[in-house]
Amino acid sequence: MSTPATRQRPNILITGTPGTGKSTLAEQLADKFKFDFIEIGKIVKDFKIYTAYDEEYQSHVLNEEKLLDHIEDRMDSDSGGVVVDYHGSDFFPERWFDFVIVLRCANAILFDRLKARGYNDFKVRENVECEIFGSLLEEARDAYPEERIHELRSEGPTDLQKNIEKITELVRTWKQ
């Protein structure tokens, strides 16, 4: 079982409300650092790690225990070097992540992104409200030490580049 002290490379969780750019950022970071990329939503669908389908939210209901079992060996590896993309954070073991990046986005931009994805009105409203109230930032703050959490704006290509630079600096100075 690895810990931040035993890992050779840091593990990074990219979290935030759907539509804030998690997948784009996570993929680019994984490519840049040659880290493994774990897209939780894709794993849940591909390996049927869910208990039901919620019609109202138009999404699968995650089986958290099965998911944790599914990725545990990779996350507990002393080699580290994993970027995980998921909108939730509080059910992952604290020891798995050295950095928890919470992406934030202006409500009008988020609204347009979610509508463009074809989300129904209920799902758009729920996600925009989640962003307004900072629910996922609070969830991260309740689950991880404050020094691991980094709240970053994610509203377009300029922010994406700034976020890559910021995280590159975090990784570069990780064990110093």
UniProtKB/TrEMBL annotation:
Region annotated NMPbind, chain positions: 39-62
Keyword set includes Chaperone: no
Binding-site residues for ATP, renumbered to this chain: G19, G21, K22, S23, T24, R117
Function: Broad-specificity nucleoside monophosphate (NMP) kinase that catalyzes the reversible transfer of the terminal phosphate group between nucleoside triphosphates and monophosphates. Has also ATPase activity. Involved in the late cytoplasmic maturation steps of the 40S ribosomal particles, specifically 18S rRNA maturation. While NMP activity is not required for ribosome maturation, ATPase activity is. Associates transiently with small ribosomal subunit protein uS11. ATP hydrolysis breaks the interaction with uS11.
Keyword NAD: no
SUPFAM superfamilies: P-loop containing nucleoside triphosphate hydrolases (SSF52540)
GO biological process: ribosomal small subunit biogenesis; rRNA processing
Compartment(s) where it occurs, according to its Swiss-Prot or TrEMBL record: Cytoplasm; Nucleus
Pfam families from the UniProt entry: AAA_18
Subunit record text: Monomer and homodimer. Interacts with small ribosomal subunit protein uS11. Not a structural component of 43S pre-ribosomes, but transiently interacts with them by binding to uS11.
Region (LID): 116-126
Protein name as annotated: Adenylate kinase isoenzyme 6 homolog
Species this chain originates from: Diploscapter pachys
EC identifiers of the protein: 2.7.4.3
GO cellular component: cytoplasm; nucleus
